[in-house]
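note to self: dont lose this again. the chain is below, predicted strucutre after it. 217 aa total, dont forget to put it in the shared folder this time
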Amino acid sequence: MFKNTLVALLGAAAILAQPVSHAQNTGAQTKSMSKSSFSAQSNLRSDMRKLWEEHVSYTRNFITSSLAGLEDTDAVTQRLLKNQDDIGSAVKPIYGDTAGNKLGALLRDHILIAAEIAKAAKAGNNDAVGTGKAKGRANADDIARLLTGANSNWSQQQLSDMLYKHLDYVIAQVTSRLKKDWAADIDANDRGREHMLMFADILTSGIVKRFPKKFPR
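---
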């Protein structure tokens, strides 16, 4: 999925490198280059949004199944953890295997912390919920630090704040479901989904700025 986007990016860069000998060819090449650039940005944005929307969707499934003690909890958990590996793998062609593996590991920690919070909330252990939230925020800082270390076009504080808010929406779903406040639960899910799509777009924007030759204006 993400590799196809990178192929498109490299294709756009190759078009830029080709010599042009005639005015007619120049016009055709510019048109082709512009179309390729737009397609590359569009594909990147779509791929990034898909990954993070899956993150939200399977987190939602996990919350529902784990709190209700459903038989699919383990299967949903494994699928959710796979999404974290998928996100890590998606950045490997851009930032390398080490960064990709580290991101995947941090995101897995993020999920395991969320699971701890859900378990504590279900048991009515508010102290443990608070501890889990603190761990979640520290994990968010680690993720933001890793990402901004690879790309200075992202703001570490902005990414941390976005991930803090994501954690808040996750906790809101957990507490709302336990209270059987279905309206609040649905609202937290809807807001959380929109929030993570914004996060995905921030990541896309940073990548475009980091590699301007592959996204000519």
